Sequence to fold (90 residues):
Amino acid sequence: MTIECTAPEPVLRTRIAHRLRAGRDASDADDAVLDLQLRVSEGVTAEEGAIVLSTDCDLAALALRCEALAARLAAPPATIASKPTDTSRP
Fold:
């Protein structure tokens, strides 16, 4: 099973800008790294049993989405879908 975390490009760029301004993150990722990642990125396919987790939200909503995903993953295997599932809503 694969969990693909997604966010729109403008959100990703804003996060990078905030992180770089703060100067407290060990990551050296910047816009150039994001550009490369976006060029070579391949979405997860249905055959790979992807669960898509949208991270384009505030921290409270993200926490709810993560809790819902954790509960789903803790469920018996027969209840976990094998096709892509969007968990963008809690």
